[in-house]
Input
Amino acid sequence: MTIKENIIWGTGQLIKCCERPQYEAEILLAYHLKQDRTYLIVNDNKEVKNTNKYKKFIERRSKHEPYEYIVGEASFYDINLVVEKGVLIPRPETEILIDLVADIIAKENITRIVEIGVGSGAISVVLARKFPNLQSIATDICDIPLKVAQSNINKYKLSKRIELRKSNLIDNVSESVELVVSNPPYIAEDFLLESNVVDYEPKEALFGGRKGDELIKQIILDVKKRGIRWLACEMGYDQKEPLSAFVNELGVKSIQFYKDLAGFDRGFIIEFM
Ligand SMILES: C[S@@+](CC[C@H](N)C(=O)[O-])C[C@H]1O[C@@H](n2cnc3c(N)ncnc32)[C@H](O)[C@@H]1O
Output
């Protein structure tokens, strides 16, 4: 079959599962051929000799497996991260959290931070690349994220500046730090997620408790108890009200909520007293 015929076939297979079936068929064929999409357009009448792998990719995608797990890579901020099943695919909204944290690090000359729930390493790797004097400890409770984060830390030659630690939240971090950043699991247990998320991405990265904000509240308590000045955290679109009430009761110097690009409440920055 030619490139064009392969794309038509792949598009047909993906019509039911993808919003942009032709685009997805093209990027999977391009990945298989180790070429870019432009190559496909220019060479659309060229024969493709061995299409077995491409067909397997299309089959996996037609069962809703995310593209990033199929190709083993996710584009995030200004880097490409290695990902695999068992680690959350980093989301574009987390880039907003990074920019807000970067502003605080720059303004306050912060040099020591902790990330809770490192996942692929997306947040810690981007921040370390932005700030050459920054030292980070990044925790996770699961083994696969710690392994994948280590690959990404090695890929970007940051092993002297980001230390990974298996820990529940910051239980195993006794060092003094100035800021904690986290994109924790924050989805309510009974929230209905799309198949590409719930059937493939790790539950430990998604669900934050019965209501969803339980882990975030524990993070706030832990950070306050340890006398750390700053906490920057992502949250669910419906968690501003309960978290506001919780934090007001607790007493902090300030809390600022921020929205994502779709206009949903998406996180907060707390400065403790
Ligand atoms: C939403 S993912 C975020 C991953 C990554 N930071 C990102 O933004 O793409 C949350 C991560 O927190 C980890 N996690 C869940 N519960 C945890 C806990 N109690 N302590 C530390 N990490 C935890 C999960 O394994 C997962 O890797």
Notes: The pocket of S-adenosylmethionine is lined by residues 88, 90, 94, 116-120, 122-123, 139-142, 145, 168-169, 183-185, 204-205 (CB under 6 Å). DSSP finds twelve helices and eleven strands in the chain.
